[in-house]
Fold this protein.
Amino acid sequence: MTSPTHAQYLDPHQSRTAEPTPYEKKLAAEIEEVFGSGAHDLPGLVAGLNARDLPAPDGSPWTEETFRTEMRRLGA
Amino acid sequence: MTTDTATPVRPGTPVRPSEVARPGDRTADRLFATGIRNQWYAVCPSDFVPAGGMKRLTLLGEEWLLFRRADGTLHMLEDRCPHRGARLSLGKHLGDRIACWYHGVQVDGTGTVAAVPGLPGCNLEGKQLVAAPHLVETGGAILAYFGDSTHAEPVPLTLPEQLTDPGTTAFLCYAEWNVNWRYAVENLLDPMHGSFLHRDSHSMAEGQTTARFRIRETERGFFFEKTDQSGVNFDWVELCRTGVDWVDLTIPYPPTAGPGGPFGIVGMATPIDEDRCAVFFWRYRKVTGWQRDTWRFLYRTLLEDRHWEVLEQDRVMLEDLRSDADQAENLYQHDLGVVRVRRMYRTEAEAQATGS
Ligand code: FES
Ligand SMILES: [Fe+2]
């Protein structure tokens, strides 16, 4: 018997506290695309992102260092 | 409930509520329906109980109150005031204790009456009268030991290594399903459903839809696995009994999820009552450094949604099972894992009911 004080807990988003920003969604989609092309190492990923014209947060092309830093911020 | 056969309890007699006979609680059917005792279970996500907060929960068919002190120390009490049985969860959080709203009796985190404000010096004071299970927190969840009256001391607990290994990173997904806990466990011991129920998902589209399975014993439980395919779909599951019951399984990721191989799931199911259960799925991956951070970013942004859709397929299927579904089955070779786990719990329920 379900008690009236008990609402079923079904929360599809438990790993984040806010909706991703448009930038985060675009970045995630581009990363998936590059991974999907078979590039699974860091140089290949950085090259793939730069080929897709999505600049790093400072506006310049991605480097391994700026990518690591941005992922540390977004994925910690 | 009749009281004339119960031994009257004088105020101050040190009887823990868990030792009070509750007719019907110890039958094998009741244990099978509401959970095997004398083991650990996952209770809820840690953040359900913030510092200074309280949380009321039903678990294994019983009512519980969790509360946390400002310094993070967590306590769990049976949600029943030792005075006249009011719900402690309606009371006030006084930092290291709960004051019952009804007559103010104060119970600390060990279940001991700390004060009876209406009658200072009352002989209830200093007595441990409320069940207060042992707790552990891991992987963002709270685990508690549920012992019966003859097994009050916790059994040794070995946590899943995936939740403690620094080379593995995990996200907890918690949900409550309107289905008996055993159906949730049996679903996990039934890898073949992945190729059908989840065929239209991001991770389980591949592989054969026919298979043969075998059971392989391990020191901590058993594997139920396909004999002819691994690493393609949901191809095996390991049931582990390490003080807490859990399953481990892996599901391949498509190349878009990047390096690190499949993602794994550590799963636990905890009975809420006979019609509901709480499910805990830690989605884990063995990745470190930038690979870890990138997976976690993708998980939060894109993958969690897709995993949730798959889980909803399971929930819809299970919640719509008739409660007597297992009374009219025709099982075949793929159901060996289901049969095994069901028999295991049934045997234990019967042993616990007779006290052997
Ligand atoms: S019932 Fe709790 S103080 Fe009386
Ligand atoms: Fe499933």
Q: What stands out?
A: The helical segments of chain B are 28-34, 161-164, 181-188, 194-197, 289-319, 336-354.
